[in-house]
Amino acid sequence: MQKFILTSRGVLRFGDVIFHKDLLEPCDHCVGGGYWEIDPSGMSLRLHGHSTDFGSPKWSMVQTESLKIPCRYQGLSLLWEDNYEGTVNLSADWKIEYV
User: Fold this and answer.
1) Is the CB of residue 37 less than 8 Å from the CB of residue 69?
2) Considering only CA atoms, which of 86, 37, 80, 39 is closest in space to residue 60?
3) What is the pTM of this model?
4) Which of 19, 42, 48, 85 is most buried, judging by how many CB atoms fall within 10 Å of its CB?
5) Residue 97 has what DSSP assignment?
């Protein structure tokens, strides 16, 4: 399944894995995760759900002012779909670095 994790350093790591923990790299401190999909009609990368390994992303625990995402997603709006807050445009709230 298409899953992502968020690290305390603001890294969003994406992959097609069985477990969210499979996306961890050495020295990562994961602060949540979920699922992702690309919406080509809306030109957006949509994040939603929660990780059974780490829970929902805890955006407030990110220790930087930017989110780092792979450069292959450049040009897409980064959206977080929350059951309580609705859709949050992360691209408007965070500085996005493409790595």
Assistant:
1) no
2) 80
3) 0.94
4) 48
5) E
Decide if 15 contacts 3 (C-beta within 8 A). Answer: yes
Q: What is the pLDDT of residues 2-34, one digit of tens each?
A: 999 999 999 999 999 999 999 999 999 999 999
Q: Which residue has the tokens 């929660």?
A: 50
pLDDT digits (tens, 9 = 90+) for 28-87: 999 999 999 999 999 999 999 999 999 999 999 999 999 999 999 999 999 999 888 899
The string of DSSP codes covering 8-49 is TTSBEEEEE-SSGGGG--TT--EEEEEEEEEETTTTEEEEES
Nearest residue to 89 (alpha-carbon basis) of 62, 59, 61, 64: 59
* Strand partners for 30: 7
